[in-house]
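Quick note —
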Amino acid sequence: MGKFIDFAVAYDPSKDKEGDIAERIIISLFLKRIQDKKPCVVFIGGDSGEGKSWSSLTIQEILCKAQGQDINNIFDDINVYKTQESPIKLDNLLFDKEKTGRLKKANIICIHEAREVVRQSYGVHLLIKLYQMLTQCLEQLRDYAS
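Predicted structure written out below.
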């Protein structure tokens, strides 16, 4: 039977630094899907203080860098910390409300403290609904960026 490999990442311990392999994996897992105009929704879960926000910020930084974007210019626009910010920031990303073009290439949004968004209920139906919402939003964002 044939074998299927999603991606392969080259690694040379004599040349590569510690973070190089992680960057290549993140680019292979996420950026390739985004560039192929496929929705990419990532859920990072865990208890308080386990590094969820740090991990998502690291992923954002790598993806922005790989796309030639300065994360410092869009950082506040692509991170949602309060439930009330979610529709406003998403609307700004999708429709470039500033009309400056600054957000035109932004294709990432991170919802921190998502348990507030789903009202502290971790029911499967709510997570599926959130996934469907994010998928639709990412598709609109992708279409807008094209």
